[in-house]
Design brief:
The complex is a heterodimer of chains A (187) and B (71). By secondary structure, chain A is an all-alpha fold. Chain A contains 8 helices and no strands. The chains are: A mainly alpha (187), B mainly alpha (71). Chains A and B meet through helix 1, helix 2, helix 3, helix 5 and helix 6 of A and helix 1 and helix 2 of B.
């Protein structure tokens, strides 16, 4: 939710609780949207779950490469590449709260994070990703996914939303392939 | 603070809401007595969503009157 992020940036109060809360809210929101679309289109639960997994993997890949890019060029590092333990609380938040939010985040995202990491373990050994790559990859971001859903709903194409996201997920392998083939650091 | 140094910034198709978000956040910030944290604001969004769900078969204006009852 860009509004929340902008708000904490303007107030200069970054926090890990906020960082994890944002991700937890995103995954619940995605799930609720897809279940609703399944309900209004009398769709298959199985395909809906498949689309949900696809959407989450898309978002995770986008986030993975984006955080790596930020780390490669020393940009903002509130998000870490490997979320494998609770970070130390920032000023203005308690460690207990960070631990709890991290745990919930971990339960919801661990499968997707591990899957994407295993598909491309060496992504850190890249040159900084070029902007054309990041722009194309940003179609995997939640904002773009929600825009696609909104446009398809407005055009009365709701029964095609779930199949669309399942097929669009094939691009995950294309992006990973392009990253491995063209963007590796020369040995 | 931008997330990336200028030379690495890219057109982010999933971030079209950022400009409007920054504007709204700035406007809220300028209200002297505004003390809510961004996390509280997410809770308000959940609440509004819930109100819409409860009122899904009714006309939209009912949401507001319902909101008054709840609060």
């Amino acid at each position: 939710m860009p509004l929340m992020e902008s708000f904490s940036r303007i107030k200069k109060t970054p926090s890990y609780v906020g960082r994890y809360y944002d991700s937890i809210a995103d995954i619940l929101l995605n799930f609720l949207f897809l279940i609703t679309i399944c309900y209004i289109t009398n769709g298959s639960i199985l395909l809906t779950i498949l689309a949900f997994i696809g959407i989450q993997l898309q978002g995770t890949l986008y986030n993975y490469y984006y955080v790596i890019l930020r780390n490669l060029v020393h940009g903002d590092t509130t998000s870490r590449i490997f979320e494998d333990h609770a970070p130390q609380a920032m000023k203005g938040e308690t460690q207990v709260k960070v631990d709890i939010y991290y745990k919930i985040y971990d339960i919801l995202y661990v499968v997707f994070d591990k899957t994407i990491y295993n598909l491309d373990r060496n992504a850190m050994n890249s040159n900084p990703f070029p902007s054309w790559f990041m722009t194309m990859l940003s179609s995997f971001g939640l904002g773009f996914q929600l825009l696609v859903m909104a446009v398809m709903l407005a055009l009365r194409l709701e029964e095609y939303i779930i199949p669309f996201f399942i097929f669009y997920s094939i691009l995950i392998f294309v992006f990973i392939g392009v990253r491995k083939a063209f963007l590796n650091k020369p040995a | 603070m931008a997330k990336l140094p200028k030379e690495y910034q890219f057109v982010d198709l999933s971030d079209y809401g950022r400009g409007a978000a920054r504007f709204i956040a700035q406007s809220l910030r300028e209200r002297q007595n505004y003390t809510n944290s961004s996390n509280n604001m997410v809770c308000y969004f959940w609440f509004v969503g819930y109100c819409l769900y409860v009122n899904r078969f009714l006309h939209c204006s009912w949401v507001l009157s319902d909101f008054e009852v709840y609060s």
